[in-house]
Amino acid sequence: MARAKQPKPIHQLTAAQFEKLFPDEPACCAYLVARRWPDGVRCPRCGNPDLYDASSYKSFHWQCRACGPDGYRFSLIAGTIFENTNKPLRDWYRVIHLMLVSKKGMSALQLYRYMGFGSYKTAWLMCHKVRIALMEDIDKLGGIVEVDETFVGGLAKNRHWDKRGGGGGTGGIGSGKTPIVGAVSRKGNVVARVVANVQAKTLEAFVREAVAHKVSLLCTDQWTGYKHLTDYPHATIDHAMGQYVIGAIHTQTIEGFWSIFKRGVVGTFHKMSRKYMPLYAEFQFRYNNRENADIFGTAIKGC
Ligand SMILES: [Zn+2]
Questions:
Q1: Which of 51, 133, 205, 280 could form an SS bridge with 303, CB 3.0 to 4.6 Å?
Q2: How many angstroms does the Cα of residue 28 sit away from the middle of ligand 1?
Q3: What's the CATH code of the domain at 252?
């Protein structure tokens, strides 16, 4: 089968650009302030812009005149994922940069070794927080939309017997693998989510949440889970009949996304935990920002 057309390369900072942009901690702090408050610093508690600049006491600190009896004092990292850590922003930025430039993903173990952190847990926690920051709110998809489901996870034979299911590790329903459903607007965004199963009720609920009713075409395969979507302009491709592309009807864009995702999952993360799967949202973020000239700044803004 012909590979789906690959998205354009992401505009990313090179290592040299990173060093130039972030030579030291104050540069990282100024960058965060600019991204977080493009229209001037506001109190993270009440949104008030009337602040006392406390930088003579401590740099990048302010005091809100409206909050509390004595004013609320806060720093630039108050209310961000960078709060309550002893890691400098420059370390965080390096971690985020590595996660964004790694098309197949960056595991906590790789980061732990590369960054030379004292503990694996530190690296894991940082990864975890960054992934949460990268989760985006996406408008309902429009235009021509493809929906498809896939399964990821280790071989069933390596799992505990009660989690194996009946599929013998070959993938698909009953194999004990984790099902993921995704929708992609051609030339647009992707939305992917871990689901409990691929029954019609589950898949339909996902489609109704992720896909606008006014789409010009909704393409899926012939799986019965999609057959009740009669209120959408729905067309199917029958892979079992050897069909892959009929004019505009195909699911190759979403299959292209699955292929990037799975190479990342197999090559980088080795084992998938169902519990942490939603946090692999970084794949979705990278895909949806593939033409964003400021992907790093967008990521920092979400932190
Ligand atoms: Zn306030």
A1: 133
A2: 24
A3: 3.30.420
Average pLDDT for 238-263: 88
Q: For residue 42, report the distance from its CA to the centre of ligand 1, in Å.
A: 8
β-strand pairing of 190-194 with 178-185: antiparallel
pLDDT tens figures, 136-166: 778 899 999 999 998 877 554 444 444 444 4
Residue 185 has pLDDT above 70, yes or no: yes
Same domain, 25 and 117: yes
| Whether residues 219 and 150 fall in one domain | yes
Distance 37 CA to ligand 1 centre (A): 15
DSSP 246: B
Predicted confidence at residue 54, as pLDDT, reads 93
Ligand 1 centroid to residue 50 C-alpha, Å? 9
Residue 130 alpha carbon to ligand 1 centre in Å:
26
In the chain, which ranges are E strands? Answer: 51-53, 61-64, 72-75, 144-152, 178-185, 190-194, 217-221, 234-237
Whether the per-residue pLDDT at 26 is higher than 60: the answer is: yes
Percent of the chain scored above 90 by pLDDT?
A: 53
Reported residue count of the chain is 303
Query: Domain end: 134, 162, 187, which one?
Result: 134
The rounded Å distance from CA 46 to ligand 1 centre is 4
Distance 154 CA to ligand 1 centre (A): 49
* Same-domain pairing of 115 and 189: no
Residue 185 belongs to domain spanning: 144-272
Phi/psi for 106 (5° steps) reads -130, 125
